[in-house]
Amino acid sequence: MTEDIVRTGALPEHAVRTALLELLAERRTLTSTEAAARLGYSSGLCSFHLRQLARYGVIEEAPATDGRARPWRLAQAQPPTTGDGFGELARGLEDESYRHWLARRAEAPAEWQQDEAFSTVVHLTPEELTAVADAVRQLLTRYRGRDTDPRTRPAGARPVAAVARLFPLLDR
After folding, report:
1. Could you give the CA distance from residue 41 to residue 37 in angstroms, rounded to a whole number?
2. Domains (ranges, CATH) in the chain?
3. Which end of the chain has fewer surrounding CB within 10 Å, N or C?
4. What are the tens digits of pLDDT across the range 12-22?
5. What is the DSSP string of 85-148?
C-alpha cells in the first residue's frame, strides 16, 4: 500500500521520506542506523524523518529485537490523504521540516546557512498553472537519480527540500 502512495504522489516527492518508505516496503522493519547505511544519509536525518512519518501515522514502532534498537515498520492502516497529493500529511511534514531547519540553521556549515525560500503571486490560467507545475517537476527530475544512488551525488551534496505550492487565491 505504501508503494502505491509513493507512486501516485499521495505523499510529496521528498528524497528521504520516499527512500525510507520504499526501503520499509522492501525490508519490513528498519532502524535509522540501517537506513543511513543503506541510503547514504546520516542516521540523525533518517531518525528525524522516521519520527515524522510515525507522528503522522504512516509508520509505527516495531517490536524491538534487542534493548537498544528502535525498529520501524509500515503502519497497518494508512492515514487519509486528499486526492491532489498535497494533503494535510504532506503540508505538516514540510512545515515541520522547515521549522526544524529554521531552529537549527546556525548549526549548519557556513556555506549551508542560507535557504532559497520565496513566494510570489502571478496571474495564470488553469492551463498555465498546470504548465508551471510541470516545468518545476521537470526541472527537478534531473536530480532524481541521486535520491537512491549515493554514488551519483557530487561531493558536498546534501538533501534539500524543494517545496512548491501552486494554488489559486480565492476572494475572501
Report:
1. 7
2. 2-115 (1.10.10.10)
3. C
4. 557 788 888 88
5. S--HHHHHHHHHHHHHHHHHGGGS-GGGS------------HHHHHHHHHHHHHHHHTTTHHHH
